[in-house]
Write a structure and sequence with these properties.
The structure is a single chain. Helix content is about 20%, strand content about 35%. It is an alpha/beta fold. It has one domain: Rossmann fold (3-Layer(aba) Sandwich). The strands form 2 sheets. A 6-stranded mixed sheet has the order 4-3-2-5-6-7, sandwiched between helices. The longest helix has 21 residues. The chain starts with a strand and ends in a 6-residue tail after the last strand. Bound molecules: inosinic acid and magnesium ion. The site of inosinic acid has 16 residues, from strand 5, helix 3 and strand 8.
Length: about 180
């Protein structure tokens, strides 16, 4: 088992971070006159963030849709091959906001951007709750970031280690044990 080393963001801090990012999104939506938005949640990690964020987005017509991105293999960060699946709705001519838990190497969202652009949305923006800019490999920057963090592996508030810890209401740094590497 791996241990929780320290708490990085408590519940109140997470609420503030989510509210701040929602404020930025809302002001852009207003500026751009968007009254219908598709919030596209990247499963599984962004499910908790997306459900809190969605309730703070101020558009009369908000659709919540889901898409799956998986890097091959379990238990850690992406290894370069990203499989995208599970989009069940049309996004052609829609304003789309992709919601992701964390941007690490950037490969997942770089690949996601290509995949979604092919479907001709009216606009396509990306929001990541956490960003580890020091780890970037792919050429990708999100339009909205909740908070930048150092290069540490975090869990909780939707983020997992080998499918565990997603339910924690706070975000913590873990120390993986050798037998699980
Ligand atoms: P990227 O393709 O390297 O940007 O990785 C993005 C994906 O890697 C995220 O959607 C997460 O699933 C996973 N990931 C990267 N860093 C962490 C972390 O610190 N905790 C949990 N998952 C992470
Ligand atoms: Mg993920």
């Amino acid at each position: 088992m791996c241990r929780i080393k320290k708490i990085m963001f408590g519940e109140d801090e997470l609420k503030r971070i989510v509210s701040d990012v929602a404020d930025k999104i809302n002001s852009d939506i207003k500026r751009d006159g968007i009254d219908k938005l598709t919030l596209l949640c990247v499963l599984k990690g962004a499910a908790v963030f997306a459900s809190d964020l969605a309730r703070k987005i101020d558009v009369p017509d908000l659709r919540i849709e889901y898409i799956r991105a998986s890097s091959y293999g379990m238990g850690g960060v992406s290894r370069g091959n990203v499989a995208i699946s599970g989009l069940t709705s049309e996004i052609e001519n829609s304003d789309v906001l992709v919601v992701e838990d964390i941007i690490d190497t950037g490969r997942t969202l770089a690949r996601m951007r290509e995949y979604l652009k092919d479907k001709n949305p009216k606009s396509l923006r990306f929001c990541g709750l956490f960003d580890k800019p020091d780890r970037r490999v792919a050429d990708f920057e999100a339009d909205y970031i909740g908070v930048k963090i150092p290069d540490e592996f975090i869990v909780g508030y939707g983020l997992d280690y080998a499918e565990k810890f997603r339910h924690l209401p706070y975000v913590a740094v873990i120390e993986p044990s050798d037998d699980e590497q």
